[in-house]
Amino acid sequence: MKKRLAQTITIENSCNLIGKSKDIFAPIKEAITNSLDAIAQRQKLNSSFSPSITLSIFYNTIKDLNDTEVYEIK
Asked: Helix, strand, or coil here: 33?
């Protein structure tokens, strides 16, 4: 009989296992992709609706040590 192992990874621990993306726009791309997927799923249900996606990006312009402008997304 095989011994069954319990799952010990929590959501907090899983964040440490997943590498951070080097693409600063990854969260924005993910949000758009998730929105499009949700619209497609709702369209499969033949729901009558007018889909739209609104994206607001808030950022600050700061200067680094070389006096170069850097955009910081909030």
From this structure: helix
Place of tokens 């950022």: 59
Q: Give 3-state DSSP helix, strand, coil % of the chain, rounded to 5.
A: 35, 15, 50
Q: 54 with 25: CB under 8 angstroms? A: no
Residue 10 lies in a domain: no
11 assigned to some structural domain:
no
Residue type, 4: R
When the pLDDT of each residue in the chain is averaged and rounded to a whole number, the result is 82
Domain count, the chain: 1
pLDDT at 32: 92
Task: Indicate whether 66 belongs to any domain.
Answer: yes
User: Model pTM?
Assistant: 0.54
Q: Where do we find the tokens 């312009």? A: 61
Full residue range of the structural domain in which residue 50 is found = 23-73
Question: What amino acid occupies position 66?
Answer: N
